Records
---
Amino acid sequence: MTRPFVGVGTRTVEKAQMLKDNNLYPFFRSIEDSEGTIVQIDGKDQIMIGSNNYLGLTHHPHVKEQAIKAIEKYGTGCTGSRFLNGNLNIHEELEEKLAKYLGHEKALVFSTGMQTNLGALSAICGPRDCMLFDSENHASIIDASRLALGATFKYKHNNMEDLEEQLASNVNRFQKVIIVADGVFSMTGDIAKLDEMCALAEKYGAYVYVDDAHGIGVMGDRGRGTMDHFGVTDKVDFNMGTFSKSFASIGGVVSGSDEAMEYVKYNARSFMFSASMAPAAVATVSACLDVILSDDTIHTKLWKNVEFMRKGFKEIGFYTYDSHTPIIPVFIGDDLKSMQVTRFLADNGIFATPVIPPAVPKGEALIRTSYMATHNEEELSKVLEVFAVAKKEFEIPSCMQ
């Protein structure tokens, strides 16, 4: 007889079952086939606007070809950590390539983005140090702060006055103070005020760590990131990024000075004790860099699509948080309504994702939409048509109430 299991998350499981019972459960949808901008679910095509595949490179011929060649040469996995038997020459070549691309002295690749933040931040922030981080930072940063031996203090989202107060209060109490923030915030598409942040860091002698998971590949010159967008690459001490968005794979990277990266290399437990990135994943990232650096049109197409959708949502009357990134959130307000709208979109051939508390504040449920360089205007026009119908049918407000 199986014993019943009760945990602190039991209520979450019950809510999920309730949504399933009412055909409103929007998570763990099984994708049967994918052609980049189109996915197939339950045998029906849907336009994908819920992906982080900003440059649309997951199906690029050069990228797929290089991934296949890597498997043919190195096999499917490394079966060990970089420290021991899992250090391939292509890992080191990719790190050199990424460091040059990002504009830092050295880069270090991890098996996932989550592991990058967990390992790097917990290694950097020692018992006599503290982290100051934005209240809307990614969950991986929150978890990293739990692993770090130092203290953690939050400042109000993108509020530089609050950050300066935290800096003034803490710089003399700790050996190191590290400002930690997303470059592009994943739910709302907000861009960190990185230029002001770096100026404050310089004023108070603090370090800057940027989680640019949604920025690298997109922001700045040829996607060199939020730090390049603001022209502060030389003022960012640690720049983290992931390969599961613009780089069509899985893994993560942290870059900075030679000295800092050597320190992380020998002190980040999630780097030391995890199997290294699979050969195909490494080759995919490297191939994506080839495309990014050689294709002059890819970012032009991306930003054209982003502007088309921003303008379209505004004309319909949606509130989209004034986003200026490929992430365009559509304000809904009510949690249940966000699920209903998501179901309506799916029934009409649109794949989008709802975001509810605690990922956003209570009463600010939204539909997170995001766009690729490979979307065509016909697809985007259909998205706007369906959203326009949804706005009337579900009486979606045009502003935050």
---
Amino acid sequence: MSAMEWLYLVIGIAVLALVVVVGGLGLVRGRARATVEAPRVAPADVLAPPETGVAEPGETVPGVEVPPATVTPTLDRPERPASRLVRLRQRLAGSNALGRGLLGLLSRDQLDEDTWEAIEDLLLGADIGVQPTQELVERLRTRLRVEGGASGADARAVLREELINLVDPTMDRALHVSGSDGDPGVVLVVGVNGTGKTTTVGKLARILVAEERSVLLAAADTFRAAAADQLGTWGERVGVEVIRGPEGGDPASVAFDAVKEGVDRGVDTVVVDTAGRLQNKQGLMDELGKVKRVIEKQAPVTEVLLVLDATTGQNGLIQAKVFSEVVDVTGIALTKLDGSAKGGIVVAVQRQLGVPVKLVGLGEGPDDLAPFDAAAFVDALLG
């Protein structure tokens, strides 16, 4: 064999060896790729459903229904009426100057005419009214003269007794929130918009819930924007349902539906929020009269609460008179009786309407509404 033939043979062997080596590398890489990628082709944890057949909350698995998360609403625990009275008394005592002013004048060494005139001015300025002021001053003058002396202790004891008499502790201040013959109690809440009427309905619901009563609220103030939403928020916080209708709808229809629902369910109390428009007395009379008549096709109205803003003074008394001519008011809820209010409005409004103040509110807190008590109120005034 020639040298040239030997050269061709060596080259051929080398080429053949190269082909074998390259092919072997490709086969190894293919096997490695198959081994790594195999789980992507048939992953058992995706294709096979969980043993229970239901995904855990938050998991996303094709073909498996995810159960919705159960959310339990957290309800407020309203404060009991007794503790409300203590707190409201403390707040009123720290903000009202009427009692302190009277005590300061009555404790003077000499109770001359100038002093009595100053006492009268203080009482009139507190919105007690002319006739109640004259009665109180006359009784104070007589008692301090007859019983002798005007020491601080004597003056305070006499003033306390006479103020309690003026507020009239004999009035029935119980809230009539229970019906008879299986009917729910029906509380109709009336008042001018802006007095805190809808808020008072919500706070009253909290008082009733704290007494472990079942309650329904009726959003019959259909003419004020978002009034039903506001009442709904109050209801949600204590687990009380609100019956509502379309905005601008018939208030009497909403009230009727709510009371009917209350009768059907056997609830203890239905509280009805009403519209507070005061454009003209005739329109107000027609509307509230219709609401009351329609309600009583289902159950008697057991309480008509008039909500008054204590800071409005004599204007509030005018409003009270108008509403008393429209509906048979049985009680007064006096709101915003804080430092800017004049405590004498309690006496004046009771004298004008002949009905008792049953609820009093101080502050913006959800439990800043409490049953009114004459002695506790006077003690708060006197600090």
